[in-house]
Amino acid sequence: MHSFFEKGLIPFFMIKDYLKELKNPVYQTVGEAAEEIGLVAYAVGGVVRDIFLNRSSKDIDIVVVGSGIELAKATAKKISPHLSVNVYKNFGTAQFTYDGTMVEFVGARRESYSHNSRKPIVEDGTLEDDQNRRDFTINALAIALNGPQKGSIIDSFHGIDDIHNKLIRTPLDPDITFSDDPLRMLRAIRFASQLNFTIVPETYEAIVRNAYRLEIISKERITEELNKILLSPKPSIGLKLLDETGLLVQFLPELVALKGVENINGQKHKDNFLHTLEVVDKIALVSNNLFLVWAALLHDIAKPKTKRFDEKVGWTFHGHEVVGARMVPQIFKRMKLPCNEKMKYVEKLVGLHLRPQALVDDGVTDSAVRRLLFEASDDIDDLMLLCEADITSKNAAKVKRYLDNFALVRQKFIEIEEKDKIRNWRPPIDGELIMRTFNLRPSREVGTIKDAVCDAILDGVIENTYEAAYKKMVEVGIELGFKVVTEE
Predict the structure, then answer these.
(1) Residue 236 CB: number of other CB atoms within 10 A?
(2) Cα distance between residue 41 and residue 62, in whole Å
(3) Which are the contacts of 367, defined by CB distance < 8 A and separation ≥ 6?
(4) At what angle do helices 444-458 and 366-376 cross, to 10 degrees?
(5) pLDDT given for residue 325 in this prediction
(6) Which of 9, 64, 354, 384 is packed most tightly, with the most Cβ within 10 A?
């Protein structure tokens, strides 16, 4: 692929060279079907862009000068009489999946927008109209699959040059492009982050001018783009652009509040925004777990709320992990993120992210390790990844000391787990047994008894057996003034 740039051959090439790269017979079938029913078809957008980026694509977009639905049915029939086609008449689109690839067909169209909606008024159009409505030049490329230009790439806006020069720009006036569909501003930053491309000045400045237009975009669509940025090889590229352009403050003001350094009597704290971006980047290097990246993004989110200055010790952020964990459900709900086990996972990691270091500071005791293993459960390894990423000091000796300490903690986890099997552990007694034994209804006291038994086991005061736990339960219940009414 690089030979095209070395030879400077733009903008037209024979399609057969590209089909060798794509290795998908569906293109030839689409071209043959279009020829048979008298239509002209083009492969467009991301699948063409990805050829030049040497990336594989699992989605193929076909633009038809005519009916996309008609061509989808004709193509599917040529592939197999049993291939099912999904038709969306309201949108004039159709799609099918063939050999693991989603192929979508749509008629070429012209779009116009009202000021308060990103839903366009759509009319039939030409390929030129369709390319004009594309978000960026790198996505406005088309390959002719049949007709007079068969075998050629149509590059009306020099998108190949922009791919070569790693640039993001809009095909037409960026102010109109972004005002029509403000989601494109997030897409510009997402592509810049994913591909490590630069947004050209006129396009960047238009994002700044139109940032307020993001208010008409649903949180679901914003979050979809943000998640793609967080899964970039280096998410800080996109996060910094979101901040600098004024987009980030509109949907994650808590993150923007982390910015800045305050100085009192010569004592400064670090810029927690830049620290957070560094932690996120370090997680992205070792994991593609989206919600672990979210935990990194939110691990210090409560520092602005908990920041205090103490004349003796300087800046403190006491309890920021607890307050931050409580903020996670609020942020997830607002951002339309899944408020389920994924949210609880992030909440847990944010709440526990200081604990491994506390283990080192206070001494790595068996009881403390048992307790952390119990609370973190199967997420203990992810917690340790977060804690290790959280070490962003520029002092190499300090970093080595922290990481060596964490290695000791990891070894202690292995030893305790082999001995006590505490990960995913459940106490030998439950609330039902407590209520039955003392004839109690659900109440705070039931939880108090259960916690006392659990703590005794985790602290190594009693053995992890039913007999020892039952005896402890009875002792605590009697101390609280209850009588045993049912013996087990």
Answers:
(1) 18
(2) 7
(3) 458, 459, 460
(4) 130
(5) 96
(6) 64
Pair 57, 27: CB distance under 8 Å: no
Average pLDDT, the chain: 87
| Tokens at 467, concatenated | 């007999």
**Is 265:271 a contact under the CB 8 Å cutoff?**
no
The token duo for 295 is: 């935990």
Cα–Cα distance, 222 to 189 (Å, whole number): 12
Question: pTM score, two decimals?
Answer: 0.83
Instruction: Give me the half-sphere count of Cα atoms (radius 13 Å) on the Cβ side of residue 402.
Output: 19
- Residue 78: which of 57, 108, 98 has the closest Cα? 98
Q: Is the pLDDT of residue 13 over 50?
A: no
Q: Look at residue 141 and tell me whether its pLDDT is greater than 80.
A: yes
pLDDT band at 122 (very low <50, low <70, confident <90, very high): low
310: β partners: 314
Neighbours of 238 (CB within 10 A): 25
List CB contacts of 263: < 8 A, sequence separation 6 or more.
none
Vertex 383 angle, CA 381 and 384, to 5°: 65
Pairing of the two strands 142-144 and 153-154: antiparallel
326-348 exposure pattern, b = at least 16 Cβ within 10 A, e = fewer:
ebbeebbeebebeeeeebebbbb
Burial 415-431 (b: 16+ CB within 10 A, else e): ebbeebebbebebbbee
Greatest Cα pair distance in the chain: 93
Share of the chain above pLDDT 70, in %: 89
Q: List the beta bridge partners of residue 44.
A: 61, 142
In this structure, how many other beta carbons lie within 10 angstroms of the beta carbon of residue 404?
Answer: 10
Q: What six digits make up the tokens of 82?
A: 């049993």
- Stretch 218-235: mean pLDDT, rounded? 97
State how far the Cα of 281 lies from the Cα of 71, in Å rounded to an integer.
44
Give me the half-sphere count of Cα atoms (radius 13 Å) on the Cβ side of residue 38.
Answer: 0
